[in-house]
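Open question from group meeting: does this chain pack into something compact, or does most of it stay loose? Before anyone orders reagents, we agreed to write out a predicted structure and look at it together. Recording both the input and the output here so the notebook holds the full record.
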Amino acid sequence: MNLPKAKRIQLAKLMKLVKEIPTEEGAILFVEGDVTVDAEVFVSDTDGNMIPAPDGTYTAEGKIITVTAGKISEIKDVETDPVDNNENPETMEDDNPDPTDTDNPDELKARIAELETEIAEKDNKIAELEAKIAEYEQNEETPAADSIEDEEKKNKFNKEEKPKGLTQRILDSILN
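Structure tokens returned:
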């Protein structure tokens, strides 16, 4: 069965074999099979008939699709090809400007000095923290001092009167 291409596309669309690709330009491209270079591309006319897509560049799904003679002749990513977006890369504005992106060497030197100061401050803080860690580790190795409660118990025991031996009682009776 030899069907004309337009009828074959309509049949494939019904069978979900055709990919419908809406473009930013408002057209809907119909591609039979995978979207690759040399794949045939169609659009629907006002009567709903499938006709080869007009030559041109279409933006869809993050890609720039170039159509020539009803076939995809080139596919590029939108981000990597600003020239095909009719934008001059030299005049494109950067939404996130790099603070070091300047032609003024004095500004660069000032920024470098600022960053060096920040690094020195962070290095000092790191050295302080390392010293505290070393001190802590050293204290872990030495036994801790007796607690206050232990000290009080020792003092109380020393202050309490111990039962006197015979010798001590004799000496106390002679001296008193």
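Observations to bring back to the group:
The mean pLDDT is 76.
The two ends are 139 Å apart (CA to CA).
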